[in-house]
Design brief:
The protein has 293 residues and is an alpha/beta fold. The protein folds into two domains: 85 residues, Rossmann fold (3-Layer(aba) Sandwich); 124 residues, NAD(P)-binding Rossmann-like Domain (Rossmann fold), CATH 3.40.50.720. The chain contains ten helices and twelve strands. β1 and β2 form a beta hairpin. The chain starts with a strand and ends with a helix.
């Protein structure tokens, strides 16, 4: 398979960058088809303040949308924007028929309640998959927008030909954005799932049982070679900056010696996140067109 690299006695490296590029080519054709039917998928991104990482993420989202033909608009608001002003903008976008997806870039300035902002987004336009209505639908397995990073992991595994059903999957991390939804999506794919976190006793004893190990805690090198079962699939969701370099939650060189597959950082899960945001926006436009009849 083209998106896999391997060396003797080392895990195959899953290139999220290549999988994402292939998916975006598919999206281009899908958007062309929709545009020919008079449906133009639209994405609105709201960025409050001047956090450099957030600016970088938003640029990536804007570039990705333009690349596949999605109409995108970015609202860049000053850090002193009030919560009411932000909520008013969300209400306007909720009513805008040209917008099918609304994303508010997190984190927000401290004076704004993130929960109130997430709750204000129309669940039918919540392409981040963070609204409690979408979270609840994900839990019971009905159609909804799935959070982009864990959904991207599922696509990576499937496109690499890795079977999830029947495996023992261990998720290290329990955040609302990655850990918890990752566990639920794996459960929905018929894996047996264990969730570990900062209070887990003897973490290594549990990670060594995993056929599929997902590291998502944001602590560089927390997963070492001796914590991985030989032949396990290891997905590294961590993004940490160490001495100016991006590294994951796994000791990549060590873990690669025992795993069967591994994702790198950068170039692994990261490119899939924006790709799944584009996927959700296109899906939203299709659902809107279907409702309109």
């Amino acid at each position: 398979m083209e998106h896999l690299e391997t060396t003797k006695n080392h895990a195959i490296v899953i290139s999220g960058k290549e999988i994402a590029a292939a998916m975006r080519e598919e999206f281009k054709r899908e958007v062309e088809r929709l545009r020919a039917e008079g449906i133009v998928p639209g994405l609105a991104v709201i960025l409050v303040g001047d956090d450099p990482a957030s600016h970088s993420y938003v640029k990536g989202k804007e570039k990705g949308a333009n690349e596949v033909g999605i109409y995108s608009v970015v609202h860049r608001l000053p850090a002193e924007t009030s919560q009411e002003e932000l909520l008013a903008m969300i209400r306007t976008l909720n009513e805008d028929p040209a917008i099918h997806g609304i994303l508010v870039q997190l984190p927000l300035p401290k004076h704004i309640d993130e929960e109130a902002v997430i709750f204000a987004i129309d669940p039918d336009k919540d392409v981040d998959g963070f609204h409690p209505i979408n979270v609840g639908k994900m839990q019971i397995g009905t159609e909804c927008f799935l959070p982009c990073t864990p959904h991207g992991v599922i696509h990576m595994l499937k496109r690499t030909g890795i079977s999830i059903e029947g495996t023992h999957a261990v998720v290290v991390g329990r955040s609302n954005i990655v850990g918890k939804p990752m566990a639920q999506l794996l459960l929905n794919e018929n894996a047996t799932v264990t969730v570990c976190h900062s209070r887990t006793r003897d973490l290594s004893a549990i990670t060594k049982q995993a056929d599929l190990l997902i590291a998502a805690v944001g602590r560089p090198g927390i997963i070492t070679k001796d914590m991985v079962k030989p032949g396990a699939v290891v997905i590294d969701v961590g993004v940490n900056r160490v001495d100016g370099k991006l590294v994951g939650d796994c000791d990549f060189a060590g873990v690669q010696e025992v795993a069967s597959y591994i994702t790198p950082v950068p170039g692994g899960v990261g490119p899939m996140t924006i790709t799944m945001l584009l996927y959700n926006t296109i899906e939203s436009a299709k659902r809107w067109a279907k409702k309109r009849g």
